[in-house]
Amino acid sequence: MKLAEIKVEDIVKVEGNDNQWGLVYDNAITENKAGEVNIHPTTYDLNGIKVVANIYTPAGYDAKKKYSAVTVAHPNGGVKEQVAGLFAQKLAEHGYITITADAAFQGQSGGEPRMVDCPEYRVEDIHGMADAISLFPGVDYDRIGAFGVCGGGGYTLRAGQTDKRFKTVATLSAFNSGLVRRNGFVDSQINTIQERLAQASEARNKRIRGGGVDYTPDLKLLKPEEADKLPYDMYKEGYYYYAVDYAHPKSSFIYTQESLLQLATYDASVNMDLINVPLLMMAGKLADSFYLTEKAFANATGTQNKELFLIENAHHIETYWKPEYVKIELKKLVEFLDKNLKGA
């Protein structure tokens, strides 16, 4: 694997946003300055797919020194310029080299058809970030941690089960994509799985015969008054986060319908006993997705060094951006990493 610098003209800009890297999170860095946190847009090849990533280096970074490093996996529907970038930057401000990459088939990364959500690929994305960051000058190979948000959190749990390069595993608002796609959110579609699998099978049949790709409905096309009627806080607030307040042109709610063929047999909470390193799982105390974190955490019997940390009054999406919650989450995450990764 070889890391290559991405050209400025290849970076996706956001209309009405003058950030040169297209970053849409609050208080994003706007330029690289000597002695401060810097961002390094990077590409690398992962199993024949071009992956586009951002690497953040701490203030005063010196390639001759040794630094702990953290991979940061973005949520379902997200891209590296949103919440994943926020936490990658904040961790760099606390002395860590961090990497956040667009998942294969998503964002700026390559892969066709677009918006495949295959667990095997999403987990491999996290292994690939570990590959890439381990090659970056100054990274201590023996002190690499994994962190993921929402769907990226669920996939980070799976990657951390087997990839022993990760010396710590942490999640925020973990989302078990397989369990939800199979049963519906809060088991709301548990009785329709056979029908939905038949549709996914027909979608694959259509694609291989040249009939095009079928996608799930795009919630970003909803009007605000329609979004307000969605049945769950996570989806209602997700609409405003992804489609309005922190929108990015490469972020998308749609997925190929045939992704369900792989998602239906995937469950991030299975084999959690294989995680034998320090584990931190954070979630909003009022999040309607909390049951997903709770189940995975309960199955993590392979480590005694584990903690479930709840953010008072927070819903799922609010943990991504609300300053008062981000401050609490970051404090907890840094304490966890400083003790178990940087201090290891």
Task: Report the total helices.
Answer: 11
User: Quick one: CATH class?
Assistant: Alpha Beta
Strand order of the largest sheet: 1-2-3-5-4-6-7-8-9
In CATH, the architecture is 3-Layer(aba) Sandwich
Number of domains: 1
Termini gap: 27 Å
- Can you give the mean pLDDT? 96
Please tell me how large the radius of gyration is. Answer: 19 Å
Task: List SSEs in N-to-C order.
Answer: EEEEHEHEHEHHHHHEHEHH
* β-strand amount: 15-25%
Q: Tell me the quaternary state.
A: single chain
Q: What share of residues is helical?
A: 25-40%
Instruction: State the shape.
Output: globular
Poorly predicted regions: none
Describe the structure.
The chain is an alpha/beta fold and 344 residues long. The protein has one domain: Rossmann fold. 34% of the residues lie in helices and 18% in strands. It is built from 11 helices and 9 strands. The relative contact order is 0.14. The mean pLDDT is 96.
Features:
globular, Rossmann fold, 11 helices, alpha/beta, 9-stranded mixed sheet, 344 residues, 18% strand
Summarize the structure.
With 344 residues, this protein is α/β, with parallel strands linked by helices. It is built from eleven helices and nine strands.
Helix/strand layout:
Blueprint: E1 4-5, E2 38-46, E3 49-57, E4 67-73, H1 83-93, E5 97-101, H2 119-134, E6 139-149, H3 151-162, E7 166-172, H4 177-183, H5 193-208, H6 224-227, H7 233-245, H8 260-263, E8 279-284, H9 290-298, E9 306-311, H10 318-321, H11 323-342
Parallel strand pairs: 4-5, 4-6, 6-7, 7-8, 8-9
Antiparallel strand pairs: 1-2, 2-3, 3-5
